Amino acid sequence: MKHKWKLFVCGISISLLLGGCFGVDSGKKSEAKKTDAKQGVDDRPEDRFESVLTYTGEGYDLPGGEENEKIAKEHKDEVVKATKDYLKEKYNTDIEVHNMVGNKDGVTVFFESVGDVHFYSTAIVPIDSDNQKVLSDKVWTLEGEVEKAIRASLYAYIDKDDFENLDNEIKDIINSNPEITGRTIESLQNVGGNGYMTPYYFVQSSSNDEAIKPVYDSFINNPTSSITDLRKLYDKDLFKSKDLIFSINFFMKDSNLEPDKKIYDSIVQAFEDNDQLPRGTYVINLHDNFIIKSKFEGYKQNSLSQTALDGIIKE
Prior knowledge:
about 40% helix, 13 strands, seven-stranded mixed sheet
């Protein structure tokens, strides 16, 4: 069952990556262009696209999930309990469930961690649709996804000052460019599920990230560890910028405007000039006003984007 599920749920990660997490390589750009169907800003069908200003996750879809989503909602308390129990047992983490999206073999549960180490992710609860039964003892998560989310959120926790500098840089950019905006908090909660997230960026830590590994191990074993103790465990000498990716995503506020190259270049310059940001690789993206509803995806044919290969490196 688990291997069958991995192939299916990979679709979730792929769509999230297309939103700008690790940039968009040429193959993914081709796929996104097909989705975009060469439509201009003035030609966005309402059944497929919604303004980033109002999008909260409505319309997000996974193949073949209509019947299972109905079953999951009828057994909501059971699904929520199974998810919470699984995350508590495996990751020693308390969570709040925000949304359930059916798929062909069960339901994908979008959740948010509770506490100082804050992240969004997903779990999968299988459903026996023939017998209308939630398989509470078969809950699982896509390999490595929750781990990456926790590691990224630990960076934000132990490196609060630099992350505050990042948030302040984004505030300055928004103040200087009132034509741009970010996602809604509701969309992050309902269909985000991609690590440490804010309306303007999300962060994930590579499975090869050795610098944060002792911090992660300590947190999993004892989530009440003090921030001082966790900071002592971080091995900065092992840090590699390629292991921590910051996907920065801005959107045009006006639904009639294409992404503005002048604004985009000024954003890139601001990040290049700021030496007070957290270490890592920054991938800058500027999209038009619309989200592809079924995928939580901002990247489209007219997006101005970088990839991790040409992103901004902060050592």
